[in-house]
Write a structure and sequence with these properties.
Shape: globular
Number of strands: 5
Order of helices and strands: HEHHEHHEHHEHEHH
Largest sheet: 5 strands, parallel
Structural class: alpha/beta
Length: 233
């Protein structure tokens, strides 16, 4: 009987030590929470979750002592008001203080829907009228993250023009990006990462899966830009 009790005690100690080790190991991991639309969700990437999947692979390898965990909250078709709802949801809101880094990549759907739901013909007045709401929503998103988490960096990804020949659209993309950067410059924990230049001299068929979304090769360009501008470890 004593032998059985002793054996059970040893097993218990081993379990406790193993659990403590795993907890410490997980505690030391870098935690990244990503919010956005289909570009963060990874639409167009046949192999995974777009740039988030690429970042997972690039930042984690067998020799890495410190791992990087990515929590992808991107939703296809989402606008800034959808991200606000996510951040106010109890299930997500209570996790915000656990993150070491946030990624916010949102705005193209706000722009497209303000134009009538597509980019076939650009309506300047419609986009300009709705842009104020986008700026207000983005400010609320970033303010919520800064308030709920006092230490995490927040990477704010700029928008790109999927139709590089469309000068009118280019002007609106630049206007959106200027407003994004203006907000980012107000806090040193916010970091702006531009993407519009990435596709300027690229053949669309080679880097896009459809009219808006990159393919695997296109997402890799975004991944490389993020890694070039930010060290997750």
């Amino acid at each position: 009987m004593k032998k059985i009790v002793g054996l059970l005690f040893i097993v218990l100690v081993i379990c406790i030590v193993a659990y403590a080790f795993q907890a410490t190991d997980a505690k030391n991991d870098q935690r990244v929470m990503a919010f956005g639309d289909s570009l963060t969700y990874g639409k167009g990437d046949k192999d995974g979750e777009g740039y988030i999947d690429d970042l997972k692979q690039e930042t984690n390898d067998a020799d890495s002592e410190k791992k990087v965990q990515f929590w992808n909250y991107g939703i296809k078709g989402q606008e800034t008001d959808g991200v606000i709802k996510q951040l106010e949801d109890t299930e997500i809101n209570t996790k915000l203080d656990k993150a070491d880094t946030f990624i916010v990549y949102i705005g193209i759907n706000d722009l497209i829907n303000s134009n009538g739901g597509n980019l076939k013909k650009i309506h300047d007045h419609k986009i300009n009228d709705e842009k104020k709401e986008y700026v207000e929503h983005l400010d609320k998103i970033l303010s919520l993250l800064l308030e709920k988490n006092k230490k995490a960096d927040i990477l704010v990804i700029g928008l790109y023009n999927p139709n590089k020949e469309d000068v009118k659209l280019e002007n609106h993309i630049n206007s959106y990006n200027s407003s994004i950067k203006e907000r980012v410059d107000k806090d040193n924990r916010l970091k702006y990462i531009p993407t519009n230049d990435l596709f300027k001299n690229k053949e669309k068929a080679e880097y896009f899966s459809d009219e808006i979304h990159p393919n695997e090769k296109g997402y890799q360009l975004i991944t490389n830009r993020i890694l070039d501008r930010y060290n997750f470890k």
